Target: Pyridoxal-dependent decarboxylase domain-containing protein 1
Amino acid sequence: MDPQFNTLSASLKLLILMLQILDRLLNVGEQGHMALLGHSLAAYISVLDRERLRKLTTRILSDTTMWLCRLFRYENGSACFHDDDRDGLVKVCRLVINARYQEYASEGYTVLSSKQPIIYQSASCRPGLAQHLCTQLGLPLSSLCTVPCNTVFGSQHQMDVALLEKLIKEDKEAGKLPLLLIANAGTPGAGHTDKLGRLRDLCDQYSLWLHVEGVNLATLALGEVTSAIMAATRSDSMTLTPGQWLGLPAVTAVTLYRHEDPALSLAAGLTPSQPVDKLRALPLWLSLQHLGHSGVVQKFRHATSLVTSREGSVEGFCAGEKEVLDAFNRWLGEQLAQLVPTSGVDVVELEEEGTCVRFSPLVTAAVLGTQQEDVEDLVVKLMEVVPVMDSTLCLIQDFREQTHRHSPSLRYIEEHSWPGLGAVRYEPQADGMDEIRRKQELEKINTELLKKLQELDTDIIFSSGSEFGREEDCIFVGMVTEDVDVCELVDTIAALGRDIVESGRLLENMTEVVRKGILEAELQLQKANEEKLIEEGMLRQLPLVGSVLNWFSPVQSSIKGRTFNLAAGSLDSTEVTYSTKAQAGKLSLQDAPTSSSKRLPGQRLFQRSGAGSDSISETSSIGQAEETTMERSITESSSIQPPISPAALETPSDTAGDVITEKIQGSFEQVPSQVEAEEPTKEMQPEGQEVKQSSR
Model:
């Protein structure tokens, strides 16, 4: 045996062993393993001598072409294998230019000036295809004519045949040469198929080359094919992507074409001139050998069956602005892709419809291994997510109106790209504040507000949403269910914002208030010491003499103590405190929605309770009885201890100056004693005033 073949056989065995190891690591599957093996085999075969290489590659190319033409019902066709799925169309255009311009081979692009070639394409063709053709062919963009789709009759994604004929006539009258028409058998966005039968007749009438591409060409391999797709077999050329349809990695695209002149095909690059170039078909050749005709058909039949296996129905969305619906559909596609990743769901942008969710198993099922269970799971998730989107869309207007009710402190932000209830910003009054300081305050307040909202016990998601909108320092409210109380939600946001602002102002003024209070206390103490000196005399100030005099003749001092009021920033007399032997405090009122405190057991925040429910009525009655009993027990009590705020804490200032200063600074940590009162019920006083109680 030839030593060259022995070496090749040993290398192939080692290669197969390595690929088996990679197959376990990468999980590419058996058919993917065959495709990868084909690439490695092509590299080994390329080292054979030229004659053996020519015979082997010719056999591989002819067999693969024959199988593809038989599989996709394209009789008497030739095949061109190319890595970029657009290159086949580029080479077909070169073939047509060579055929229609007799002197193109010798004169080049100068012959095109006499009659400018025109290439027609549908408005639903894949983006960038026309620009790629012009770049590769050296044609101006004026050589491309985009034909609109039907807008009145028929589908909005099918080429308008009547308008196409009108454009062809106008170009011919202008001295131009209609050259080629690109049609779709499955548009990239929505999967629609053009009227291929009528387009074929129109191309025959005006001598145009008809090229067809699209995912629906895969259904030509099935036993039953629709007439619309079957008309693609009459085209002059078609581009197939079997690697994508069959889930084969690194397999080239194929362009099948019909032409009688092999010399022109060679000049256009459709026929490979070197034997090594024919080895591009080897990975597909091995994969087709492995799958067989029945295996390929079974994969296509499985993909098409996934489309017709949906059950149930989903109600339509509420009417809304197009940009808002695009944002919601984009969110829907992302959610479904995360929940059911093997379904192959993705998001596409269509010219008329906007953002849509696409499910195309002919493109993704073979690669992802989509099964019937995945589709059923997809439908279940869809039925769960869509009602939430529907309720959110219905409550957007209510959320906007409730936010305007709290204007100007709470501002509604128009952000249509946000898939949720809406966006708000808390904006306190900023009188006398420059722009830089104002922005800093907005960022600080809304950041703290977002943190507090995220800590609430609710299913609603609050976020900064910086990746969605241009507005800064905003709070974005996510999707909500239909039982959400929007009024309570907005009231809570406004109340939390006010609490943050008031707390911030108190902290800002605290230092200045304390500083001024200490200075005033020092002045009061100095004045009190002077009065004490005048009242008691000089002798009583001497250490030894003063003690003797005070022992023989005690002095009743008339100097009164002082208390420091943090809220008012002033020193007040402690005469009232000592006379009543109690301290008065202010009641801090919580500015928050009262409905949240009346939630039932197990009820989440911002969730409306069901009206007319027996269980809710019984629970409410029990709650009212408990509240009545509690109020009665408080009224009958002989001693009460009201909540004390830092603003009402008092410190006597009847000692030396240093001690008074320390007591004033530490007044925040004092704990008030229990208040004894004969009157058990007192009327709550407004904020800023003191509550006086008498023990007499």
